[in-house]
Amino acid sequence: MLKKMCFIMGFFILAFPLLAQSFDCNKPNFGARIEDLNKDGYFVKYMEKGGISYYNYTGVCRKNMHNHVNTSISFAFIQGQLYARIISISEREDNMEDIRDRMEKMVSKQIGTQPFEIKQDGDWWIYKWFNEKDSLKYKLKIHSKTKASKSAFYYEPLRAKLPNLNEDDDPVSLRQ
C-alpha cells in the first residue's frame, strides 16, 4: 500500500507542472483575456503600439518548426484579448520549394483549409489562409532569396475593435 501511495504522489509531483501549464502556443485561444492566459506570469509585455499590446511568452512553447529553424514568437492583444501570434524566422539555407511545400502543408493542417491566395510580390511569396468557421486567418511571407519568413495567425473579429488601425501598426500586415 505504501509503495502504491508513493507512486501516486510521485506521479502528481512530476505531472503537476504539465497540468498547471495553462497556455498552448500551438493552439492559441484567440479572444481569451490576458488575465486568464497569464495566471502563471509567463506573458511579458514589451511594447504597445496603435492600440495593440505585444507580449513575449516565457513559458514552454515547443513547435515542430523548432526542429529545423530558429524562431522568434510573440503575441498581440487588442483591448486585453489575444489577437495574434506572430512568428519570424531568420535567414536559412533550405531549398525554397521545400520551405514553401512544408509551410503550405503544416499551416493548412493547422488552419483546416488550403490557402485561398498565393502570390509573389517582388522577392516575397505571400500565402493567405482563412478558416471561416472559426474566423481565423493566417498570413505567411517568405523571402525567395534569404528564405527568411514572417507569419501571423490571428482572430479577425478582434481587428474590428480598432477600425482606424494604421496598416503599419497592425502586426498581421507583416510590415514590422
Low-confidence segments: 5-20
Helices and strands, in order, run as HHEEEEHEEEEH
Report how far the terminal alpha carbons are from each other: 60 Å
- What's the structural domain tally? 1
Strand count, sense and barrel status of the largest sheet are: 8 strands, antiparallel
Which class of secondary structure composition applies to the elements? alpha+beta
Strand content: 25-35%
Provide a count of the helices: 4
The percent of residues in helical segments reads 10-25%
Oligomer: single chain
Describe this structure in words.
It is a single chain. Strands 1-2-3-4-8-7-6-5 form an eight-stranded antiparallel sheet. The chain is α+β, with helices and mostly antiparallel strands and 176 residues long. It is globular, with a radius of gyration of 19 Å. A hairpin with a 2-residue loop joins strand 3 and strand 4. It has one domain. About 9% of the residues have low confidence. It has four helices and eight strands. It is 24% helix and 33% strand.
Compact description:
The protein has 176 residues and is of the alpha+beta class. The protein is 24% helix and 33% strand. The chain has an 8-stranded antiparallel sheet.
What are the main properties of this structure?
4 helices; single chain; 8-stranded antiparallel beta sheet; 176 residues; 24% helix; alpha+beta; 33% strand
Give the topology.
Blueprint: H1 2-20, H2 34-37, E1 43-49, E2 52-57, E3 71-78, E4 81-89, H3 96-111, E5 117-121, E6 124-131, E7 136-143, E8 149-155, H4 156-159
Antiparallel strand pairs: 1-2, 2-3, 3-4, 4-8, 5-6, 6-7, 7-8
